[in-house]
Design brief:
The chain is built from four helices and six strands. The protein is α+β, with helices and mostly antiparallel strands and 150 residues long. It has one domain (4-147): GAF domain (Beta-Lactamase), CATH 3.30.450.40.
């Protein structure tokens, strides 16, 4: 089980050394990938021209653009709320960038009250993400919202 208190402390230290979003998100995606077990992708999609565009990540090559409402990330872009998917194969319109992914969690990220990015994490296990993960990752995102310079 992940200790989110330690993860948040490490993230805080990384963000204090460099708050520019690209550098910070690069390190945070690596931190997530090395801190949480059973992941195959961890990273960010940035809102650009009303579409999600792949940003810093760890894992196999990803879909470059995701339209609003498409897949889990596009759903979060429209709904502006965290979506936890126990089995991506049961999610209507799931985008299979990596066929090994079986569960996913996506958290919206804001700057000045506007949705600017999403945190996207995939696992090869079904039911990988819990309510504890959701709460911990939402705390991480609140930290990003507070510290990052976009």
């Amino acid at each position: 089980m992940t200790n989110y208190d330690i993860l948040l402390k490490q993230a805080t230290e990384l963000l204090e050394s460099e708050p520019w979003c690209i550098a910070a998100l690069s390190n945070i995606s690596s931190l997530i990938m090395t801190s949480l077990k059973d992941l195959n992708w961890a990273g960010f999609y940035l809102v650009r021209n009303s579409v999600l565009t792949v940003g810093p990540f760890q894992g196999k090559p990803a879909c470059i653009h995701i339209q609003p409402g498409k897949g889990v990330c596009g759903t979060v872009l429209l709904k502006d709320e965290t979506v936890l998917v126990p089995d991506v194969h049961e999610f209507p319109g799931h985008i299979a960038c990596d066929s090994a992914s079986n569960s996913e969690i996506v958290v919206p990220i804001h700057s000045n009250g506007k949705l600017v990015a999403v945190l996207d994490i995939d696992s090869p296990l079904t039911n990988r993400f819990s309510a504890t993960d959701k709460a911990g990752l939402e705390k991480l995102v609140r930290l990003l919202e507070e510290k990052l310079v976009w």
